[in-house]
Specification:
The complex is a heterodimer of chains A (542) and B (288).
Chain A (H helix, E strand, L loop, with lengths): L1 H9 L9 E2 L9 H6 L9 E2 L23 H10 L22 H14 L5 H14 L4 E3 L8 E4 L7 E4 L1 H5 L3 H15 L23 E3 L5 H15 L5 H17 L1 E3 L20 E5 L16 E3 L6 E3 L15 E4 L7 E3 L9 E8 L11 E7 L6 E10 L4 E8 L7 E6 L7 E10 L8 E7 L4 E6 L13 E2 L2 E2 L6 E2 L4 E9 L5 H8 L23 E3 L2
Parallel strand pairs in A: 3-5, 6-7, 8-25
Antiparallel strand pairs in A: 1-2, 4-5, 8-24, 9-12, 10-11, 11-24, 12-21, 13-18, 13-24, 14-15, 14-21, 15-16, 16-17, 18-19, 19-20, 22-23, 24-25
Helix pairs in contact in A: 4-7, 5-7, 7-8, 8-9
Chain B lengths: L2 H17 L21 H9 L21 H12 L9 H12 L7 H13 L2 H14 L5 H14 L5 H9 L17 H21 L3 H11 L6 H14 L3 H11 L5 H5 L7 E6 L1 E2 L4
Helix pairs in contact in B: 1-12, 4-5, 6-7, 7-9, 8-9, 8-10, 9-10, 9-11, 10-11, 11-12
The chains are: A alpha+beta (542), B mainly alpha (288).
């Protein structure tokens, strides 16, 4: 009854813009007949032209891009994306190549959009490659019986996983959304963690069917489709402003509905901003791009080896963290007391300030069960203490947390824990901030710790200032011992992209640094949008 | 919120800001963005000289320049009109709008060039074009989500002062019932489509405000601070308001004063749930 009711509502006589007249005389099994009969009908018998006809240059003076009703091009795309002509016979393969009312033509159109609009964007390229990789070999099917969902991917114990595209995919989604759906389903189609599961399954708690991902940074299928629309908005070529802004709208809507938790800001423009705010009061930044000495891109406060042993550059490819690409350069620290990095001299840092670092708990059972300091300005000797960010774990009780330790006079030590259970081989962003609160003399300050895109945990410190030792260096993967050159609490894992600002950055800036779990290169510490009240000090990208 | 309520809200916000020691600069300190400088050089000059109101009203009867339409597209437009499948009258401007609505949704090598040419021609008659778009929008069936969105997106690109009232109405219109199945895995949602339309209308208001339209800016503030409004609309309104304020930092400061602190991130920074958890007072270290 619901469907009938909807059809009746839509059945009012209206002028229909830019539609494609439906073929007549088809068998009832055809999708377009279902629409024409009003069983499923948003457009009263006329299929909407939601971006389904390429612009072609009728004069032939300009090289065309696109499939343009070419049988040869359609065959190419069908082969590349696993569309079997036999399976699609009733869905348009046996109709005219240019019949845009058919499911096949509308699918081909979305696939061609993936092909011709990616330009030089590595993001759009990777999404197109994912779809090609997943669907090569007759695994992309049509099924119009389902008129309530866009698509379904089936994962099998034996045999290749397959995706069925449904009625709303063909006739409710505009062409950019269809392309995004194919990317989304391709992400699902990748093998899951078990033979019984699809890849990147929705793990959020949003309604009865859990129709969302737990978080944007988890790399789930919705992060792929959201990233597609963001990249299409900002980087697509051979398309119109309108379609790029259509993706902006879709991206923003995904942020609001497809993640149980999300902190990525909505877009307001498809233009990449060059707002320099994340360079504001940036004091140091270490990209961590090489072995040995790590260059500070801001102020020359290079990290050197704390002792003779050399830390190891991993993966061998420079770049940001890369949620979809694990290749990058970082510094890997073994569990040895001479392995850490430190600035060559004392690191001057009074509040307010921000220290951010990416850290990965490397594979290995004991790596999750060894406490250690990730970054610190803390000489164990009295008068040399300032702050530590450390991982604590009690194997016997199962308690684990990220712990902030601060000193307000160089001797004492105050602590606050944020419960945290690390996942092996996963990169995490930790942002530690010292914030002036109230007045300069009210006897209170605050320390914030933010893990990934989670909420900031704020601890009150009953002091106006953090102690600023002018002789204690900033250290990585250890804290300095009392005796010169000694290291305490070495940490096992990998560290990348350390930044220091001489201000407390905003929540929005933390999000920009996090960048959906992909991090930001030093060159891209400009990001989107916010020109607000901020200012930074240093940045190291390993 | 009507005009009286809006005025009252602005006064209240100003008083709160002053009470907190915040200096609110006049929102018109920044010269409005030049609009279509290649076609309206006199407008740019006026805008710089009189930043409080950027440009004179355009006349709807401006003779439109010739727009080159490829023969195949011209033929298609004829067919659309013959079949009665257009939202626009059979006039020169109506046909230009029909052409624009066809070409803006395409992609391919020349898609953007042709689409921009079509939009440039419409901007020559921005007020009249907006009027026809709004008329078409008001008559369009609810279920034509993409078409309705594209009409509003076109208004955003046109940035016509005459569309302020209608855009506000579109942005703040009550949501119709959900006709899709959003609770189902990969389910459809017509509310999603409606919200995308409303957020786009709000961004369109923002573009007009950035051009110097103080009325649009004031309405954006009212929308951004209305707790009953949709969050996507509030975020877009906050962006538009701050961007149009002259010095964006001043606009943000006004928003901060007008909004409860718990909404600053969600509305001003347009982000989801990155809130602060109270971790308590730091305690002496038990063990390192």
């Amino acid at each position: 009854m619901k469907k009938k009711s909807r059809a009746l509502q839509a059945g009012a006589a209206i002028a229909l813009a830019f539609g494609v007249t439906l073929p007549s005389g088809k068998a009832a099994a055809y999708c377009w007949d279902a629409k024409a009969s009003g069983v499923y009908n948003n457009y009263n018998g006329t299929v909407a032209d939601t971006g389904d006809r390429f612009y072609t240059d009728p004069t032939g003076a300009i090289p065309n891009v696109g499939w343009e009703c070419s049988s040869a091009r359609r065959a190419e795309l069908m082969s590349a994306y696993g569309i079997d002509s036999g399976e699609w016979g009733d869905y348009g393969y046996n109709s005219g190549v240019c019949d845009y009312a058919t499911p096949l033509a509308r699918t081909i159109d979305a696939l061609e959009l993936l092909e011709v609009t990616r330009g030089s964007s590595p993001e759009l390229q990777s999404m197109r490659d994912l779809a090609r990789d997943q669907y090569s070999g007759a695994n992309l099917n049509a099924d119009c019986d389902n008129d309530t969902a866009y698509a379904t991917t089936f994962c099998y114990v034996i045999g290749a996983n397959q995706t069925d595209l449904h009625l709303p995919f063909f006739y409710d989604e505009d062409v950019t959304q269809r392309a995004g759906t194919i990317v989304h389903e391709a992400a699902h189609k990748e093998a899951g963690t078990t033979v019984f599961s699809c890849g990147r399954s929705h793990d959020g708690d949003c309604g009865p069917d859990n129709e969302c991902d737990e978080a944007y940074d988890h790399g789930g299928a919705y992060s792929w489709s959201a990233d597609f629309h963001k990249s299409f908005c900002q980087k697509a070529v051979n398309t119109t402003t309108a379609l790029r802004y259509r993706s902006l709208s879709r991206y923003n809507r995904y942020l609001n509905t497809k993640f149980e938790t999300n902190t990525a800001p909505e877009l307001t423009s498809c233009s990449a901003s060059t707002s320099p705010h994340l360079r504001d009061k940036l004091h140091a930044f270490w990209p961590m791009k090489s072995s040995g000495t790590q260059v500070d891109e801001v102020g020359g406060r290079n990290f050197v080896q704390a002792a003779a042993q050399v830390s190891t550059a991993i993966d061998g490819v420079t770049g940001p963290i890369g949620a979809h690409n694990s290749n990058h350069m970082a510094q890997k620290f073994a569990f040895q007391s001479t392995d850490g990095l430190k600035t060559a001299s004392g690191f001057d840092l009074s509040g307010p300030f921000t220290v951010s670092a990416w850290a990965r708990f490397d594979p290995g059972f004991w790596n999750l069960n060894e406490p250690g300091v990730i970054v610190a300005k803390w000489n164990e000797a009295n008068g040399g203490r300032s702050f530590q960010l450390r991982y604590v774990v009690d194997y016997s009780t199962g308690y684990s947390a990220m712990r902030i330790v601060v000193s307000t006079n160089g001797n004492d030590a105050l602590q606050g824990d944020v419960p945290f259970t690390p996942t092996q081989n996963k990169w995490n962003q930790f942002v530690l901030q010292w914030v002036d609160t109230g007045t300069a003399t009210d006897g209170k300050s605050a320390v914030l710790l933010t893990i990934n895109d989670g909420p900031a945990t704020q601890f009150t410190v009953l002091s106006d200032k953090i102690f600023n030792s002018t002789t204690a260096p900033l250290t990585v993967a250890h804290r300095a011992g009392t005796a010169a050159g000694t290291q305490l609490d070495p940490w096992v894992g990998s560290v990348d992209s350390i930044g220091v600002w001489k201000r407390s950055i905003s929540a929005a800036e933390r999000n920009e640094l996090y960048n959906g779990g992909t991090g930001r290169e030093f060159a891209k510490l400009t990001a989107e949008a916010h020109n607000y009240q901020f200012t930074s000090l240093g940045w190291w990208q390993f | 919120m009507n005009e009286r309520q809006r005025t009252a809200a602005l006064v209240l916000i100003a008083l709160v800001a002053l009470g907190a020691g915040v200096v609110i600069k006049a929102p018109s300190t920044r010269a409005p963005r030049a609009k279509n400088p290649t076609t309206e050089p006199d407008v740019v000059a006026d805008a710089k000289a009189s930043p409080t109101r950027s440009r004179p009203k355009q006349h709807a009867k401006v003779v439109a320049p010739k727009l080159e339409i490829a023969p195949a597209d011209a033929e298609l437009i004829d067919r659309v009109y013959s079949a009665g499948r257009t939202d626009f009258p059979d006039t020169e401007l109506g046909r230009r709008l029909t052409y624009h609505m066809m070409i803006a949704r395409r992609y391919g090598a020349e898609a953007e060039l042709r689409s921009e040419q079509a939009m440039t021609a419409l901007r020559e008659q921005a007020d009249a074009s907006s009027e026809l778009l709004l008329d078409a929008y008001s008559k369009a069936d609810e279920s034509r989500y993409f078409d309705r969105w594209l009409m509003v997106e076109s208004l955003r690109e046109l940035r016509s002062d005459s569309a302020v009232d209608a855009l506000e109405q579109i942005a703040t219109a009550p949501l119709p019932p959900e006709h899709g199945n959003p609770g189902e895995i990969h389910g459809t949602s017509t509310v999603d489509e409606e919200l995308m339309i409303r957020a786009t209308a709000t961004r369109a208001l923002g573009e007009i405000a950035i051009d110097g339209n103080a009325e649009a800016r004031d309405r954006l503030l009212a929308m951004a601070t209305n707790p009953d409004e949709q969050i996507m609309v509030r975020r877009a309104a906050a962006w538009g308001y701050a961007s149009a304020y002259g010095d964006e930092e001043d606009g943000v400061e006004v928003l901060k004063q007008a909004l409860p602190e718990s909404e600053h991130v969600a509305v001003i920074h347009r982000a989801g749930l990155p809130y602060t958890i109270d971790g308590g007072v730091m305690q002496p270290v038990a063990s390192l």
